[in-house]
Design brief:
Alpha-Beta Plaits; Aminopeptidase; about 25% strand; alpha+beta; five-stranded antiparallel β-sheet; nine-stranded mixed β-sheet; homodimer; elongated
């Protein structure tokens, strides 16, 4: 907040249901009503430093040392995620103002304190105060580069819905001696449903599941192919060797651009030691569906429930619990002026054009901005894969910090 | 033991690894080496009387009252299971000896104290002392009548093997945002295997599973059809309406004469409250297979394991735990001299021929006798469905007691 005040931003601390929100507002001379209004988002909270023993230097006393890759790096909790990254934008703004005296847009800086915790605080705040933020674009600096040196803009995030289903058969657990055979077994019913959810090629078979899913643009597919993602090593790293998703998509496409139906947990019947000849009264599965842009969470949920009901023996019941939440998948069009400007700027700084990458998971705040402010986010970040984010010895390379600042300065220039 | 001594049997208390075994030996004058040697088995232990509050009279103070069906009944814990039932044979022996002075066979009465508990005590004892019991037949009075008034001989008992399988995929739990799609999901692999275990008609699809299973003799099928088993009510009683077993067999046949593959429990991944976007590293199912005569437990276990392995993706592993035990299915030939004799006797006493019934579960002692003494058991009993066995107000109808004694006397007569 002091940094923002120091460069002439009007700062403010807003109370939310969680940690306070740091706001810094910059308006060009005359108010700049005709200039675009940019919201820059970062977060000041960090993951706990535990286990502190594993840190080489104290986590909250930043130190510049040479990292294992031979680069000068800032070591500290939050050095990368997200204090170092958010400072690249603030330093770029400071430098630009020092040289030019004025930024080519209206700017609201928003730094939250619940990114690592409960995303619902900011979501609620934005829902209630959307009118305070009539912005044209959101810039976020909380993502990474590709392979260490190639700049990247994240344009795709998968959404997610959580769902639980409990199949009930007999009204009580039964003895398999007396009922084994004629009595329906809810575990078998559930297994059959889960097994039927995918075909042999890994495609989800739930009718309507893919409704609204757009094909991956051929230009993007080509770009991703060129990344030569080491799918084999990616799987080998977790002990696997065979891509299990849709066989007509590459591993990278499966993660970045294709929806999934996943079983996260299952339980039913006897789970203690040894054997018990019981036929269980019920069985439960917990599922999540990763969604891509175009899929409607409510429709997917309904499609799944219909799929279950259609496979239910007449004397079984299914109960659903949808309290696992839902978020939509996001894909930012590749040809917005913001992405074009950022692409030119990043190419100029890093010597090669940025790749448009995806993220397999969700970033809740991106959805909150989309939902409440009706605004797409431009996700540009300079983290490297070896930055130990969330782990001991978190670091941020000085090179990334400097070139990150220059990248934002070039983006500001592009928007002039 | 006093009762056995009182009628002239030589009694003995044998130590086992559990409760002591009461033995009563009768030898006709001269030793009766040419006469058959019968082992009569019963058990003196009972289920706990809890909840005692729900008993009309104290559980260990026998009382004769009119039951809900208007019959005089002996109310007490064990009145039926198995003190009352075993006394029918002892009283018949006492009466026969009083009248004729000599029984037409050598007889060893064996009353154990671990029937309701751990069957392995007697099994171990019989394994170690088989030579002490060179018997020709085992008579057991611990089963029921059919529909209240039709005498029954139980000739079929299903065996059981317990098996556990754990499917392992990735070496750790994974985040479904980063790996959802390409990473194989052990819950899905397990579900597919369990779902494939039966076809649409309820038949087990595991190759070799039915090896050795003999068709149900047409005469027996016809006899069972005549029983008009109320399958609809049997299922409705536990909240079901559709027989889920092999569709070309009746519910009664499914329980009495057909093997099954049952899932008794399943677990894997996240099972706590709410939702978690985890892809689990492993999933486990507990299974039991009910077996009929002719199936070899070891072969069935191997067939299942082969079935699992054949469906395993190359980067998944399956671990098996076979410590759940195994027992073979038993079917006593319908035309042994013992069954023929008992059938004539029971028809004479009850006015109609006995039905040859099955029991869906196992009676471990029957298998122990078969295994260690190489002897089939003749299971004749006079329990009624409303006897509240194992429950408060257990009873045994005086009519069953009297006619049971007379039934055994008639069987003894048939063996003369």
């Amino acid at each position: 907040m002091r940094q923002l005040t120091a460069i002439g931003f009007e700062t403010d601390l807003r109370q939310t249901s969680g940690q306070p929100l740091v706001i810094g507002a910059y308006r060009p001379p005359g108010g700049g009503a005709r200039l675009p209004h940019i919201l820059f988002y970062g977060h000041y909270d960090v993951q706990p430093a535990d286990p502190v023993d594993l840190w080489t230097s104290p986590p909250f006393e930043p130190q510049i040392r040479t990292s294992r890759t031979g680069k000068d790096s800032i070591f500290a909790r939050g050095a990368c995620d997200d204090k170092g990254q958010l400072m690249t934008f603030i330093e770029a703004s400071r430098a630009w103002l020092a040289v030019h005296g004025v930024l080519p847009f209206r700017l609201t800086v928003m730094l939250e304190g619940d990114e690592e915790g409960d995303a619902s605080h900011l979501d609620r705040y934005l829902a209630a105060h959307a009118a305070d933020f009539p912005v044209d674009a959101v810039f976020i600096c909380d993502t990474g580069m590709w392979g260490g040196n190639t700049p990247a803009i994240e344009t795709r995030l998968r959404g997610c819905i959580g769902e639980e289903v409990t199949i009930t058969g007999p009204r009580i657990d039964l003895h398999s001696g007396y009922y084994g055979g004629p009595a329906v077994n809810p575990i078998k019913v559930l297994s059959r449903i889960l097994a039927a959810m995918h075909d042999a090629k890994g495609k989800v078979t739930i009718p309507g599941f893919y409704d609204g899913v757009k094909p991956i643009p051929p230009s993007l597919r080509k770009q991703w192919e060129k990344l030569k993602f080491p799918a084999k090593e990616y799987l080998a790293d977790v002990g696997l060797s065979i891509p299990a998703g849709e066989s007509n998509y590459s591993v990278l496409e499966q993660i970045w651009a294709r929806p999934t139906a996943e079983v996260n947990g299952i339980f039913g019947g006897y789970r203690g030691p040894g054997s018990k000849t019981v036929l269980p009264a019920e069985a439960t599965a917990k599922l999540t569906f990763r969604l891509v842009e175009g899929q409607k969470p409510k429709n997917v949920r309904k499609a799944f429930r219909d799929f279950v009901k259609a496979r239910l023996p007449a004397d079984c019941k299914a109960a659903f619990d949808g309290s696992g939440g839902e978020s939509t998948g996001i894909a930012v069009s590749e040809d917005t002026p913001w992405i074009k400007a950022a692409s030119r700027a990043l190419k100029a700084e890093w010597g090669e054009p940025p790749v448009l990458i995806g993220g397999g998971g969700s970033i809740p705040v991106v959805e909150s901005f989309k939902k409440h402010l009706k605004t797409d986010s431009l996700l540009v970040g300079f983290a490297r894969d070896d930055d130990n984010v969330h782990s001991p010895d978190e670091k941020y390379d000085v090179e990334c910090y400097h070139k990150g600042i220059r990248s934002w300065a070039r983006i500001i220039s592009e928007l002039s």
